[in-house]
Structures are given as structure tokens and as C-alpha cells.
Amino acid sequence: MSPSTPPDERPLRADARQNVEQILQVAQDVFADLGYQASIAEVARRSGLGMGTIYRHFPNKTALVEHIAVKVMQESLAEVQRAVAEQPATWSAFTRVVRHMVRLRSSQLFPVSRGRAKEPGPELAAIRTQLLTALEDLVARTQRAGAMREDVTAYDVVLMLNSIPPRLPDAEDDGPTADLTDRCVGVLLDGLRAPGTETLAQPAPGRREIDQFFRTMYGL
């Protein structure tokens, strides 16, 4: 399944493919801004497309959100691979990936109902495993280069990224509010740099804790 081909559909005509791409981009922004409680009606309003058009391609909100999650994780995996290839200074590669993932506001893009009737599809499970493996490798590379403190794991990083708040909504009376994301990322990165002066409590999170976190919070 490519990001522009909804599940269980054959390749789309050019106009239908354009509609799908528009739905995905708008929905990604809507769920990032408002969380999973945002309605399909809000996606339709912002996209200028009818509800029928959206439901023609995505039978329900869960299908739409899972499709976005696959798209975002594919983009993040590609960015990890590019950063490692293009920036031999490992800390630069790591910070590039962190800022990319925060820009995608990934913590707000995976919110699937806790009461799911079925497990996530195999494509979602596979890309998530690939991305976590790539992040583990990137953290290990950065630690071997002496740039990152040795007592943190890739799973620490994932949990920290999910703690950065989403973009603040605009205030109706006072105009746009400040985007504090870059400030939060700066504090996070400074805390991850070697050598680190604070002794961290044990145990460190691992894959089991990450799986439990995503399953409990987002149904993933």
C-alpha cells in the first residue's frame, strides 16, 4: 500500500489519487492539531471535500488514522536512512532525525481508539518495527561516536519525543500562540548529549515498555 492508495483498493485514477493525497495531508494536520477526537467532518471542512468523498476512500476514522501513521513512519524511516548516509557527523544525523520527527508531530498521529476490534494491520506493524530498529541503530552509532550519553536507549528517545506537546491552538482573541516545539527540542537534545551529569534511575525502557506504551495510549 502506497501512501496515496487507500487499503483494499486498486491503483487510483489521477483525480482520485489527488483527492486521497489531499485528504491525507489535511487529516494529518487536523489530528495533529486537535487529537484523535477531531471529526471526519473537520477533515472535510478543511479539505473542501465532501464527507462522501472521504468515506469512499476510507471507511472509518480508524482506517484513515492508520493510513496516516504508515505514511508518517515511512517518511521517518527514510529520513533516518538519509541522515546516516549524508551526515557523517553522527550527532548532526541524530539531531536532524529528532527535529524531523517532531515536525511531523508523531505523538499526535498515532491515536487509535483503545477499544479496537482488531489489531493493527501487518503493514503498520512492519513499518513500526523497521523504524524502531533504525532508531536503535542511530542511537548506538551516536553513542559509539561519544556524542550521546551512554545510559539512554532509543526507547528513552521515543518516549521523550511523545512527551513534547502538540502545536498550541490559535487563540481567537490574541492571534496565533507561540510554537514552543523548538524550545522543547533544544532542552531534550541538551539532556541527551554526552557525558551527562545526572545519574538516571534504572531500569531503562526497552521494546516491551514501548510496545506497552503504544498499545495502552494509542491501540498500536
UniProtKB/TrEMBL annotation:
Family annotation (Gene3D superfamilies): Tetracycline Repressor, domain 2
Name of the protein in question: TetR/AcrR family transcriptional regulator
Source domain of life: Bacteria
Keyword DNA-binding carried by entry: yes
DNA-binding region(s) in UniProt: 39-58
Organism: Streptomyces vulcanius
Record keyword Heme present: no
InterPro entries: DNA-bd_HTH_TetR-type_CS, Homeodomain-like_sf, HTH-type_TetR-like_transc_reg, HTH_TetR, Tet_transcr_reg_TetR-rel_C_sf, TetR_SbtR-like_C
